[in-house]
Amino acid sequence: MPLTHLPDGTEIAEVTIANGGSSARLMTYGAILVDFRRGGGPSLVLGSDDIEAYLGPMLYFGAVVGPVANRLAEGRAPLGDRVLQITPNEGENTLHGGPKGSGQRIWTIAEQDESSVRFTLTWPDGDSGFPGPIEMGATYAIDENGDLHITLTGQSAAETIFNPAFHGYWNLDASPDLSGHRMTIHAGHYTATDDALIPVGPPVPVEGTDYDFRQPRGVPPEGILDTNFCLEGTGVREVARIEGQNTVMTIHTDAPGLQVFDAHPMDTSPHKGHLGAPYGPFCGLALEPQLWPDAPNHEGYPSIRLAPGESFTQTSIFRFTDKA
Which residues carry out catalysis? Predict the structure, then answer.
């Protein structure tokens, strides 16, 4: 089924933006980045032209997930003098906003020009346990250098929790796996997790672990990655560098965390991706600037509380150069 309607007939709109030799195709379902290309080459993000793929094994591919990305243990979130109960959708835990998060909803095109588009979504008060209503925004823009800027925003009428994230999978070689990639992450600590990928305590030093990417290393490493890296510095700064065979991508963000998922269990069959075949294990890197997972349940983690009248803004820039 093409990217025009959901199976129930709900209409989807597509948008194409371009600048500086790069182009991006997006859709209102999930505010999803369907593909991103430089100089007319193959897509550097994973995706499909079949909407049913996004309802199945390509769930979250290229989407803006939220209102709270990542995991909440048992769906619990202490907030002031109460504890929110967010609908679980991964066993007893909540992932990416619950059974129907923002990555599975129809957004509205609020503004559009040749090089940018702004999507908006109103999250109703109480939906899945989130107080609100929450006004979510996602702006994609391509600058004169062909780099991709993603700005996520939020405002709420009630005290709530908010931590959205862009969940794109990248493969800079348009290859079946990540074997030609090397990665650097400017993080001296990560959040260790239990078997359900719930953080178990304060940040842990990366030194001496499989999570030390302070110097360039191959991807995938000896271990597997579905890991939050505690980024160094503040403000919009370079936090990671991904090198493919011919392309280098640097990630700049003001977020304090970067969730990195190496797609080790991936199998999107029977749905085909941009390469004309289903995506398999280690097909791409999900690189998700965000606040830290399960933050309300851990003292010392960056707060994801959003008060009435406050504005949340997160800026991320994906910059590209040709490899020398």
Answer: 167, 288
